[in-house]
UniProtKB/TrEMBL annotation:
Residues 3-156 form the N-acetyltransferase domain. It holds the Pfam family Acetyltransf_1. The lineage of its organism: Bacteria, Pseudomonadati, Bacteroidota, Saprospiria, Saprospirales. The keyword Acyltransferase applies. InterPro entries: Acyl_CoA_acyltransferase (IPR016181), Diverse_Substrate_AcTransf (IPR051016), GNAT_dom (IPR000182). It comes from Saprospira grandis (strain Lewin). Keywords: Acyltransferase, Transferase. This is GCN5-related N-acetyltransferase. Belongs to the acetyltransferase family. It comes from the Bacteria. GO terms for molecular function: N-acetyltransferase activity.
Amino acid sequence: MSIQIRPGNPQDIPAIHALVRELAIYEQAEAEHTVSIEEMKEHAFGPQAYFSFLVAENEQGQILGMALYFFSYSTWKGPCLYLEDLVVKEDCRRQGIGQLLFDKLLQIAKTKKVGRMSWQVLDWNAPAIAFYKKLGAQLDESWINCQFRKEFIENY
């Protein structure tokens, strides 16, 4: 199977949205996935682009996986690449697609001269943790994630 990794375009958003929904179901958080296809398209390709993404596509043009990322800034490290989601369709896993997506992300990180590339993984997601360790990722369990949810922000 020949896989091409390429930057995403507006026509890819429905497939990306479906992959994110698949991830939310896997992570037992389907109700948390509230962004619509139209909103996602606006957030990626509107006047204020919040994220970029890569797609893994087969010879037939089917999207089998994706990596959604954005750039942030660390006062310690400078520009950083944050990987929000990496998803490969369940029936396409263990075929090297995740590795290809990471290879391209690392090329982007190197080109942009980022000080760090980071992402999160649920502590119970053993297959993903094993994959990241195999890639050489450092897992840092010393930080606690904090957040304000939309409802809190709106009512503040």
